[in-house]
Amino acid sequence: MTTAPAPAATCTVTAEEIGAYRDAVRATLPAAPDHQASPVHAFVLAHTLAERTVSALTTNESGPVQVVHLGQDIRCRRLVRPGEQVTVRLDVLGARREARGTRVALRSRLTGDGAEPFAELLTSALLAGATALEPFGEISAGAPAPAPSGPGEAVTVIHEPTEEWIRRYARASGDENPIHLDPEAARAAGFGSVIAHGMSVLALAVEEAVDRYADGDASRVRGVGGRFSAPVAPGEPLRLDLQPDTARRVVRLTCRTPAGPAVKSGWIELASSVPSAASAGDGDRNGGGDDD
User: Fold this and answer.
1) Where are the domains of the chain?
2) What is the pLDDT of residues 76-123, one digit of tens each?
3) pTM for the whole thing?
4) 17, 245, 248, 292 from 152: Cα distances, Å
5) Does the domain formed by 6-280 have CATH 3.10.129.10?
């Protein structure tokens, strides 16, 4: 079976949207020292098209299908800019049958003010309950995480997500899946309570790394990745373990709850410096500048 690429989607990203998303992620942290976008905002821009694509893939399913986000890699050349028109193009790389349903791999490329994509995302998801989709293509782990230069000094940070933090992230990201907002829907899906978005946890870890290892400059982030292994419930301590390398170019990360790892095999790649051309374009939320 072969599947044609999903149609492209285009949107214009406002400064208010960029600011609201990063503020939501950093609600438990000091305000960002600049008005740059979150490096994870690229996922937000690709998410709607990915949802539409998954819906099309599961049209012929006879029963309900639950989408379980398994892993996410983001490679970014720069941040998204306020006022920029972004085009998202998505390809379904493959599908593979598994015991609980069908695993799919999606690749999204984001292009803005320029001919070359400024971000590329590889998403792995399980379509739990999906049995009608025929296997095709390849499911791969993507490019390997960057190699660290040697272990630096590890840092552990504890957060405690709240229902309000989860609701605020849902509004800012546009991902208002009931399992994040409605306790009854969450219990029906097999969870004890509403749960945090996996990408909110990863985005929070990125902000912690940016503050500690990139002098607060989010534009130095060149890549982010992680595998989602367990849900994060509100009211429970969330432990972020950050392990930078000696050059502070690669940060390994693990996110844990009392129940065990929630994000495994996490990594963040940082540039040692930002090209002057990129820095010169940085602006604020009311103007046009570089942000994600």
Assistant:
1) 6-280
2) 999 999 999 999 999 999 999 999 999 999 999 999 988 899 999 999
3) 0.89
4) 35, 5, 8, 26
5) yes
